[in-house]
């Protein structure tokens, strides 16, 4: 990768695969009003949110000055912006939504392909590299795809693409605490997970006093707040590991409510 390649090809391929996997679930006959496990959100809201955020991310990369001028200054303003992505598409047909979605994602990819490795992209929080932003978009596609699949009672087969979500979950250890006004522990836990392929994925100091081990899918579900930690097979050792998984959040914005224990789709 040279200095003009802001995002590795493999990461863009995985992001595209997540987009295509979710889009394949939503056809012209899909009931967009079907509620998802995300409280107050139906399938249309989830897709509308992804479209709106793809367009905002494209703007942040292509016209960062305009993005900064329009960026909400408060959590309330951010919530209002995200809500507008849903309300403006409330009456869209499935076909109309799919076409706008295709166009927005194509524009997002084009913007990523025009970034530089040393570029810092403004966002809702500290600026980030194009690769980190691409990872964040992949995480959102995976998380909302999980909501849609559960709403449609489809059992998705996990892939090793969830390693990107695990990476983001691990990287946002400190953010999960500061976002709630809590002191950040001096050292993160060691995280050792088994990917769907059977490969081991690990992050954090090998001599850490706390650790999290288990299935990568479970970790991804927890850090995206799609499952309560107690509804997974993850094993925690040490107080810091327990504290982290109780508040883990790998997405931007104010602290999310998470999912209560026992809320597992049948």
Structure description:
- Helix 2 (43-62) packs antiparallel against helix 6 (130-151).
- This protein has ten helices and six strands; from the N terminus they run H-H-H-H-H-E-E-H-H-H-E-E-E-H-E-H.
- Strands 4-3-5-6 form a four-stranded mixed beta sheet. A two-stranded antiparallel sheet has the order 1-2.
- It has 266 residues and is of the alpha+beta class.
- It has helices spanning 9-23, 43-62, 64-70, 75-87, 94-113, 130-151, 162-171, 173-178, 216-223, 239-247; strands spanning 121-123, 125-128, 190-194, 200-203, 211-215, 235-237.
- The mean pLDDT is 94.
Percent helix among the residues?
Answer: 40-55%
Count every helix, treating DSSP H or I runs of 4 or more residues as helices: 10
| Stretches with pLDDT under 50, minimum 5 residues | none
Round the mean pLDDT to the nearest integer and report it: 94
* Helix/strand class: alpha+beta
Strand arrangement in the largest pleated sheet? 4-3-5-6
Instruction: Report the C-alpha radius of gyration, rounded.
Output: 18 Å
Biggest sheet: strands, sense, closure?
4 strands, mixed
| Number of E-state strands | 6
Strand residues, percent: 5-15%
Q: State the end-to-end CA separation.
A: 44 Å
Overall body shape: globular
The topology string of helices and strands comes to: HHHHHEEHHHEEEHEH
């Amino acid at each position: 990768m040279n200095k003009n390649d802001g995002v590795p090809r493999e990461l863009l391929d995985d992001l595209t695969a997540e987009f295509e996997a979710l889009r394949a679930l939503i056809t012209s006959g899909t009931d967009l009003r079907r509620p998802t496990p995300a409280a107050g959100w139906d399938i249309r809201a989830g897709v509308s949110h992804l479209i709106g955020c793809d367009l905002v991310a494209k703007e942040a990369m292509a016209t960062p000055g305009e993005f900064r001028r329009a960026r909400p200054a408060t959590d309330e303003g951010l919530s209002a912006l995200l809500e507008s992505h849903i309300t403006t598409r409330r009456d869209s047909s499935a076909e109309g939504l799919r076409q706008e979605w295709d166009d927005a994602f194509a524009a997002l990819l084009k913007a990523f392909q025009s970034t530089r490795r040393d570029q810092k992209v403004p966002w809702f929080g500290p600026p980030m590299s194009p690769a980190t932003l691409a990872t964040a978009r992949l995480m959102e596609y995976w998380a909302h795809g999980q909501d849609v699949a559960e709403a449609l009672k489809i059992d998705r087969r996990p892939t090793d693409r969830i390693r990107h979500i695990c990476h983001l979950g691990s990287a946002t250890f400190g953010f999960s605490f500061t976002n709630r006004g809590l002191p950040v522990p001096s050292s993160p836990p060691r995280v050792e997970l088994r990917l769907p392929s059977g490969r081991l994925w690990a992050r954090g100091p090998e001599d850490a006093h706390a650790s999290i081990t288990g299935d990568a899918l479970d970790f991804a579900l927890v850090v995206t707040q799609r499952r309560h930690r107690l509804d997974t097979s993850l094993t925690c050792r040490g107080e810091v590991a327990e504290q982290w998984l109780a508040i883990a959040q790998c997405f931007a914005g104010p602290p999310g409510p998470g999912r209560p224990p026992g809320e597992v789709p049948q």
